[in-house]
Write a structure and sequence with these properties.
Elements (H helix, E strand, L loop, with lengths): L6 E6 L4 E8 L3 E9 L1 H5 L6 H23 L8 E7 L3 H18 L3 E5 H12 L7 E6 L4 E8 L2 E7 L5 H12 L5 H9 L24 H16 L6 H27 L3 E5 L6 H14 L2 E3 L3 H4 L3 H15 L15
Helix pairs in contact: 2-3, 4-11, 5-6, 5-7, 5-8, 6-8, 8-9
The chain binds 5'-O-[(R)-(carboxyoxy)(hydroxy)phosphoryl]adenosine and zinc ion (ZN).
């Protein structure tokens, strides 16, 4: 406690970001330190799990010190420690969980494990102080793509999921094929700004009529086939046009399915979460579709969309209030259902 406020420390290490944040009374963000490993993994064209774990271990103490200093608090002021305990790269998740458990054991501060995907949704509680469940959510990240009905804090009913690649995974794979490098999402986002989304036609995959599931793995093959065909014909490929066209094929499906889920569940509020929610075109087009249907769209600023400790602190606060603390036997999981 400091100044009568309940302080939560949020720890996130599930992929390539070592991040620790401090929140006050659940919704006020005091600090959010994010140490990115992008530069390290870029030369391999993607995240190398073993290197990610080692980097988390190197970075985490410094990130903790900085998060406390920026929030102007001491470790003894903290009332709750929240940590991502899955899903994610197991070696990376373990570093966060072991750190959280060591801190909890040494200080007696209660500990709570957070599902990373509930964390992404919870970023919206920091961005929109009045937002409360229930609402509909579109979760689009590097590892997951889901449409869910959020029934309560850290609780949801899954309406649709990807059957193969996640949206972010499709962005990263296609960016690699085009030669844009890692991470692909932000690069395709930027390149698309100067491109024509109708220049190349890629098939939109809707699966069975009325399905809220997704399938994006075929897109990479379509892009690859297009590149090969153009190269064989010795035609020059416009990277902005290709990026914009590929991206539009995904955005069309995401927007249509989100609108279908909204009308089916009679939702008037839609929350978007996850790294791909940082995409400028998706934000714009989903916003436009929601405006037409009278749905209020909530999307946090980009830094709260990609992985961060703040979203974990937000989710932990509500989980602790409802269920109390986890024990020091808290485990780390590569996969953890929503
Ligand atoms: O949520 P996140 O940070 O990590 C996971 O939980 O997976 O999502 C990372 C994914 C990556 O695939 C990255 O390429 C994508 O989010 N991403 C974007 C953008 N920024 C990050 N995709 C499209 N446009 C962006 N601006
Ligand atoms: Zn994430």
């Amino acid at each position: 406690m400091k100044n009568g406020k309940f302080l939560t420390l949020g720890i996130e290490t599930s992929c390539d970001e070592t991040s620790i944040a401090v929140t006050a009374d659940g919704r006020e963000l005091l600090s959010d330190v994010i140490s990115s490993q992008i530069a390290v993994h870029t030369k391999y064209g993607g995240v190398v799990p073993e290197i990610a774990s080692r980097k988390h271990l190197e970075n985490i103490n410094g990130v903790l010190e900085q998060a406390l200093a920026e929030a102007n608090v001491e470790l003894c002021d903290i009332d709750l420690i929240g940590v991502t305990n899955g899903p994610g790269l197991i070696g990376a998740v373990v570093i966060g969980v072991a750190t959280a458990k060591a801190l909890s054991f040494a200080t007696g501060i209660p500990l709570v494990g957070v599902n990373h995907m509930h964390g992404h949704v919870s970023a919206n509680y920091l961005a929109f102080p009045d937002l409360e469940p229930p609402f509909l959510a579109l979760i689009v990240s590097g590892g997951h793509t889901n449409i869910v009905q959020v029934t309560d804090y850290n609780e949801c009913r899954v309406l649709g999921s990807t059957r193969d690649d996640a949206v972010g995974e499709a962005y990263d794979k296609v960016a690699r094929v085009i030669g844009l490098g890692y991470p692909g999402g932000p690069k395709v986002d930027k390149a698309s700004r100067d491109g024509d989304p109708e220049a190349v036609h890629f098939k939109r995959v809707y699966l069975e009529k009325g399905s809220l599931d997704f399938s994006f793995s075929g897109l990479k093959t379509q892009v690859l086939n297009y590149i090969n065909k153009e190269r064989m014909a010795k035609r020059e490929i416009s990277v902005p046009d290709l990026c914009a066209s590929f991206q539009q094929a995904m955005i069309d499906v995401l927007v249509d399915k989100a609108m279908l889920a909204a009308s089916r569940t009679k939702a008037d509020r839609l929350v978007m979460a996850g790294g791909v929610a940082a995409n400028s075109h998706l934000r714009e087009q989903l916003g436009e579709a929601c405006r037409k249907k009278g749905i209020r769209l909530y999307v946090p600023e980009p830094v709260l969309c990609t992985d961060n400790g703040a979203m974990i602190a937000a989710a932990a606060y509500y989980k602790y209030r409802k269920q109390g603390a986890d024990g020091l036997d808290l485990d780390a999981y590569a996969s953890l259902p929503l």
